Amino acid sequence: ALYSPLTGRRLAPDDGRAPIAGTPVAVLVVDGGPTIPLFGDAVLGRRPFDDRRVVGGVAESIVLDDPRRCVSRCHAFLRVDRWRVEAIDLGSCNGTSTSVDGGPWSSLVPGIGHVLRDGQRLRLGRIGIAVHLIGR
Predict the structure, then answer these.
(1) What pTM was computed for the model?
(2) Nearby residues of 16 by Cβ (< 8 Å), 6 or more positions away
(3) Separation of alpha carbons 3 and 10, rounded Å
């Protein structure tokens, strides 16, 4: 369990309650890049701010730096439901895959959600991302 460095409060309550407002439900660690807290629904890609969910204010945009252009403009959607995070490929050109514990990569079917486990890895085009869930 993680605790807030400011308040000392537990970020993921044991009793199944929803996340405390303003605390992340997961942390995304981009290979060779930044560590990004995930607070709610998000679109990942080279230009995710063009996605209708971001424009409508219901999802964050997470811009992935990809000079080789293997990542689509709006590549994947991360849907957050309480402490659960689901990855959905948005019909990207180079696909989205997942791997658990260094095992084989499994491609996501575009438009179909895949519930992520703590420590699971995502691959968007050629960019790898480790997903660390904070909650239950």
Answers:
(1) 0.84
(2) 82, 136
(3) 4
Whether the CA torsion 22, 63, 51, 41 is positive or negative: it is negative
Residue count (the chain): 136
The per-residue pLDDT for 101 is: 87
CA 57 to chain centre: 17
The Cα 46–Cα 125 span in angstroms is: 11
Residues 106 and 93: their CA atoms lie apart, in Å, by 16
Strand order, beta sheet including 35-38: 35-38, 26-30, 127-133, 121-124, 96-99, 106-107
Going from the C-alpha of 121 to that of each of 83, 84, 124, the distances in angstroms are 17, 15, 10
Q: Cβ(61)–Cβ(54) under 8 Å?
A: yes
Distance between alpha carbon 62 and the CA centroid of its chain, in Å?
Answer: 9
Question: 60-63 and 42-45 as β-strands: parallel, antiparallel, unpaired?
Answer: parallel
Write the pLDDT tens digit of every residue in 72-113. Answer: 999 999 999 888 899 999 999 999 999 998 899 999 999 999
